[in-house]
Write a sequence for this structure.
């Protein structure tokens, strides 16, 4: 583990915050089929509309900075892209690690657990407290790998039952608890961990661990999952001040980067977005008024990966609407895919800013700990190919 010096972390936080402040107009306007106002005002329309489909796909999967297309971009866009790439280039926090549990643990999760354990191996702890423990795979592994007590805290009773069953021969214990309602009692000899403890849970983990002087290690994800409508920063004397980021922007921090998504390939995710747009067009064609994202209200997003006819049949049935005819399906599928092809290029800048949001928020958390006397490392816990949600913080009191 390498400590990030005060200057490096503060600089990263400051530069990420300044970049988001400079791109407030891009973040404020969700793009549709037509060129967004910011693209016109900034003089980026010709460049973005001139990108061919394979270049758009490459830029979606790998970001703009690595692509030759960026060399032809307007200078101010190129500068922002280069700055974003710089701010988001994170040090690796640990090696691959080994020995993670195999029983009922998927290969990608296993590699995350092994890397996580390697990153915390030298943190002093008598007890691991795992928040949002799920099925307790990380809790079990850390209890064994570090030779400490372990307590997994999880809101879903069914998950806790599974965790207890899997831990029958382990010293790990599990409690069913809503951590927002009942914060855990922590002490300075605890190591508080969260492997993709979503959104507000990680913010609370950081604050509560700091109050107790406990060591902290987490991998960030799903910043938008929180009871409140927006996230207030923990550190407020930077370029964004006390500005709270609304859920719609926090959701950008969950964007898929790299050739693979979390559950599907990039191409499959792109196709699913086209299907959602086609569904939206079909529902609007039926006279429904929809706010942003409303077409999927109450629908598991995985449904958008089904064949279009099955996807639409499911949604219409859920809404109590008559089934679609073959002609209606054909018409709106073609329309949705054409709209999606046009909208993709306008979404590139927000996609790329999504990673900056993710890094900025984790800098905010890390800086909060550093200002309370922690030695802090912020970086990538594992390669993006294992999971793009790889931004982690490891922090201990000296
Ligand atoms: C993305 S899952 C991660 C699970 C596990 N750490 C893993 O990596 O497999 C997040 C977990 O946090 C739990 N969770 C979310 N909010 C919670 C809360 N307020 N109190 C306790 N658990 C919560 C969820 O039920 C879910 O199991």
């Amino acid at each position: 583990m390498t400590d990030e010096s005060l200057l490096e972390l503060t600089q990263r936080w400051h530069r990420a915050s300044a970049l988001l402040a400079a791109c407030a107009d891009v973040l404020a306007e969700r793009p549709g089929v037509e060129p967004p106002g910011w693209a016109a005002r900034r003089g980026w329309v010709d460049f973005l509309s001139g990108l061919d489909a394979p270049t758009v796909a490459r830029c979606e999967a790998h970001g703009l900075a690595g692509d030759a297309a960026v060399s032809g971009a307007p200078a101010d866009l190129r500068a922002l892209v280069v700055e974003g790439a710089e701010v988001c280039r994170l040090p690796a926090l640990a090696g691959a690690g080994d020995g993670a549990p195999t029983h009922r643990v998927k290969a990608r999760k296993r590699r995350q657990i092994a890397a996580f354990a390697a990153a915390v191996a030298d943190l002093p702890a008598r007890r691991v407290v795992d928040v949002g423990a799920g099925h307790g795979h990380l809790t079990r592994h850390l209890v064994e790998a570090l030779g400490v007590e372990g307590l997994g805290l999880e809101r879903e009773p069914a998950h806790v039952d599974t965790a207890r069953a899997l831990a029958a021969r382990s010293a790990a214990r599990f409690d069913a608890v809503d951590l927002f309602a009942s914060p855990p009692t922590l002490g300075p000899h605890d190591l508080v961990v969260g492997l993709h403890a979503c959104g507000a849970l990680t913010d609370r983990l950081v604050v509560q661990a700091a109050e107790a002087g406990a060591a902290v290690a987490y991998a960030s994800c799903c910043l938008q999952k929180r009871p409140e409508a927006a996230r207030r920063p923990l550190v407020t004397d930077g370029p964004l001040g006390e500005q709270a980021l609304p859920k719609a922007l926090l959701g950008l921090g969950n964007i898929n980067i790299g050739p693979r998504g979390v559950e599907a390939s990039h191409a499959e995710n792109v196709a699913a977005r086209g299907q959602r747009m086609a569904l939206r067009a079909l529902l609007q064609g039926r006279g429904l008024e929809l706010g942003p994202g409303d077409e999927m209200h109450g629908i598991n997003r995985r449904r958008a990966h089904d064949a279009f006819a099955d996807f639409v049949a499911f949604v219409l049935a859920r809404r109590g609407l008559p089934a679609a005819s073959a002609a209606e399906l054909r018409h709106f599928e073609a329309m949705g895919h054409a709209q999606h092809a046009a909208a993709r290029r306008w979404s590139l800048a927000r996609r790329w800013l999504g990673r900056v949001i993710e890094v900025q928020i984790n800098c905010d958390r890390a800086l909060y700990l550093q200002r309370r006397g922690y030695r802090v490392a912020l970086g990538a816990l594992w390669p993006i190919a294992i999971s793009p949600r790889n931004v982690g913080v490891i922090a201990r009191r000296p």
Observations:
- The radius of gyration is 22 Å.
